[in-house]
Fold:
Amino acid sequence: MAEFRKGLVSNAVGNTPSGTQSDYMHGTAEQIVAEDTNASTKWGNVKRIAQLDPTQGAHEMLEVGAPSRPSATTSAVLTKRQGDASEAELIQRVLSGQEEAFRQLVRPYEYAVFMAAQAILKNDADAEDAAQDAVLKTFTNLAKFRGDSKFSTWLIRIATNEALMKLRKERHQRLHDSLDEPRKDDDGDYIPRDFADWREIPSEALQKKELRQALSRALAALTPKHREVFVLRDVQHFTIEETAQLLGIRKSAVKTRLLRARLQMRDALAPGMDGSWSTGRREYKPVRPW
Amino acid sequence: MEISCEEVWREISNYLEDEISAELHIRMEEHFKGCKHCSAVLDGSRNVVRLVSNAGAFELPAGLSDRLYQKLDRKLSERRESQKKE
Structure:
């Protein structure tokens, strides 16, 4: 169970259909795990899934094929959910053979699907490949979606499983994987390296390609386990507790990893944060008290 | 009781999350008042969180939206072909 990852749920900024984080994310991680299984009880589902390696197990339960018609249970759950009528309708339309409705269903979560995969794989091309697989599997297994939690939850978890599968394959192929294996001190204290007094970052600075590239580079430099936590908490706005549940780790581990990720991101971005993102100034000297 | 810079760094993320005790919160605030380096670390960390929260912080690869459905489209067209043959 320690290695079991319950999956990521995504709430991409600017891509949330409606509502706050708390009403966007429904249910516990157990419910999330349970929702795409066909067992009869929630706890039965959890037990069954928990015995499997998530990078294979939950993933392999999703078989590629044509979506079948929804079960009576699925229909009941979808119709009684409030506020999601259009999403539920889209699902019903896809299941009744209107394939074109599927893009409409997935479109609000494209960013989240990609980011979930990218956080694990670090590489755009691989993340895109995993995201494509996730979209295909989501379509072909749509009838298995029981509606116990948000559709987006289920979709992102599939994307996460796809990314984990891909990562595992890669690591198997390359013994000396360059994807940063956790170092012994990864969860130890992180000492800030730059004490520059950052200015308030104007929102228009984000329009600068330079800053966006620096952000991507800084994110890519994090180890996978720090990146996952950072993306879930700071990019996709899950709470600490939700992040812990989704990754199957303790809250304390989330906090420790988040601290390191934030400080590391801060150090990596320091050269532009002293104002050069907005002023275009080039020269930079780290500020250090030692 | 005074708190060291090292202790502040260790708790800075929890401070931003408001996941620390009221007592520690007060001690850290006191520390920030007198330590410009730790204040800089705090401001920087807060700026990072603000920056990445922005929807435009990370770009999607160009054309991703269409390519995302490539495998699905291929699968569907294969299915249609095989249905035609039948």
Q: What stands out?
A: Chain B touches chain A at residues 6, 9-10, 12-14, 16-17, 19, 36-37, 39-41, 43-45, 47-61, 64-65, 67-72, 75-76, 79 (CB under 8 Å). The first helix of chain B runs from residue 5 to 17. The two ends of chain B are 82 Å apart (CA to CA).
